[in-house]
Each structure stands twice: as C-alpha cells, then as structure tokens.
Design a protein that fits this description.
single chain; about 180 residues; Beta-Lactamase
C-alpha cells in the first residue's frame, strides 16, 4: 500500500471547496453550534506513557529529536510518535514545548512529520540544523499558546456548565409554576 506524495495531497486540497465547511457551520442552529463547541472543548489531549517511543524519550530528556530516515529508527512507535494522518513516515522532528507555568517540564510534545523539499514540493526534504533552530525559536511561544488554549477551554467549559445549571433551574421553576397553576 503506497502513500500519497506531497503533490497529490496538494491537488486534493486544491479540489476541495474552501467555503463548504463555513456554509455547513452557518446552516447549524444555535443549539447545534453550542453542541459542537461543547464537543470540541470536552476532548482531552492525548496522554502517553513517557517510557514509550521517541515522544516519551523527548519528554524525559527535554531535547529535540529528529531523523531523516524514519524506517531505521528502532525506538519509533507509530501509535505514539505519529499522531498525523500520514501512513508513510520518511522523516520527523519531535520536540518538547514549554509554557510559562512550569518552564522545567514540557507542557506538550510536538511532532513534525515528512518535511517537504522547499525547492521541489513533490519531494521530501531533509531536516537540518536550520529546522532545529527554527523550532527552538518558537518552542516557548508554542508552549504559552497551549497553556492559554487550555485555560480558555476550561473557562468555556465552566461557562457551559453554568448555562446547563441555569437551564435546569429554569425548567424546575417552570414545572413548579405549572403545578401551582393547576392546583
């Protein structure tokens, strides 16, 4: 079973209607939109054992790891080290990101899979020291973004919980009012 080249994936994306998803969202009722938002904010980040795969080793070592020959990496565990939809990993870069709350412990591990050659988009590129430098320059910013996203998601969840409680109270009050009127 072969994998798609970067150019085939690009062609598929080009054929997709970029406005179709927006139109689908606009067609939803307010209740359906709220349900979608609740679904998104109820999802948990993936947790994995820190003794498995390269991602676990990166979490422990707090060091970036990359390879331009993924097939020769014996510690690469597909279920943990490849959270992308890619089925044929050629190269990868896995790195820790740090937030401001605890800059000594990674708040996430980020996986970059199959770098595309900058000159020939139909070929895979080689991960280099330049890529490592780029990652390190944005590592802390990514961590702060993840922390902020987690905080916003928690706030939104609390907001939905309050809405649910208020709806329940309104329902009980309406039931009580009906009972009083019928007696």
């Amino acid at each position: 079973m072969g994998s798609e080249s970067p150019s085939a994936k690009k062609d598929k994306k080009k054929d997709a209607d970029p406005y179709a998803k927006k139109e689908k969202v606009e067609a939803l009722t307010e209740e359906q939109k709220a349900a979608k938002i609740r679904e998104i904010h109820s999802k948990e980040f993936m947790n994995f054992p820190t003794n498995s795969g390269i991602s676990g080793a990166v979490f422990k070592s707090k060091e970036l790891y990359f390879s331009n020959n993924a097939s020769k990496e014996t510690k690469f565990v597909e279920e943990i080290d490849n959270q992308s939809v890619c089925t044929d990993v050629k190269n990868f870069m896995i790195g820790p990101v740090f937030g401001s709350q605890d800059p000594t412990v990674p708040c996430a591990i980020i996986q970059f899979i199959n770098k595309v050659d900058p000159q020939d988009k139909t070929q895979y590129g080689k991960i280099s020291a330049v890529d490592e430098t780029k990652f390190k320059s944005m590592q802390n910013l990514l961590g702060m973004c993840i922390e902020n996203t987690n905080e916003m998601s928690a706030t939104i969840k609390v907001s939905f919980d309050v809405q649910d409680v208020m709806k329940n109270i309104q329902g009980k009050m309406a039931e009580e009012e009906e009972r009083e009127q019928s007696s």
